[in-house]
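subagent[fold] <- orchestrator: predict structure for attached chain, return tokens only, no commentary.
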Amino acid sequence: HTHTQNIRPQHLKHQHTDDKPRQQNTRSHATKPPHTQSSLHSPPPLLQTRTHPLFHRQRAPPPHALTLPYVATGPLDLPLGLASWALIAVYQLCSSRFTAAWASQNCEARAVWARYILEKGDYILGVQTLRNGLTSASFFSSACFTCLSLLIGIASQNLATLTRVALLKFATTGLLLIGSALAYLQSVRYMNTCAFLFQVANDQRDESTSRGTVMLLMVLAHNCWAAGEKMLYLLMPAVIWLVAGGVVLLPFVIGF
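subagent[fold] -> orchestrator:
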């Protein structure tokens, strides 16, 4: 009887021994971390909580508006600025008496040059010279319009904080830029017309275009060029007044 009690069926022994690893496997599954069970369908553990530093990172501040570092207008800014411009006007009136002969000589030189090109028939030299003048005048005109657009953008962004004196400064600088750009643009127009009339000015069958017309256009182109150049010179004190104020503009005008 004791012998029969110790003897168990063979299939029951295998069943008893197989239950232990199954219990161990179920325990191991129960003790696994929750994020390893479905790692393919769940987000990364760093993004599961809003306490992570990525959610509290401060955003970069938006870019500030483009501002011009001009000095705040003081009580002496306007009187000193007007005094400086008065000195510039007096200087221009006095110097025009001495430079009138030089200006007329330059105009005559343009007319003589146009007559020489037409008489010799050297149109290649004439077109090349006009091309150089057209390129430089177009560059100055484009540069003035570009600076004008930037100036208008800066003034419009700071319009609420600008004083009347600051608006006067911006207006003076803008008017000089507009005048210089238009003067150079008109010079481009005259020289471009001369380049077309070079070939037909010697044609005697048509009296509407003559050598005198080409010579006159060259003189007008030179006058417009000189006007644009003078406004560019006046633009320098306008920018100094806008950026540094009349305290710096008056010594600059006196020393210059």
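orchestrator: received. Logging for downstream: Confidence is low (pLDDT under 50) at residues 1-8, 11-32, 34-40. The CA atoms of residues 139 and 184 lie 9 Å apart.
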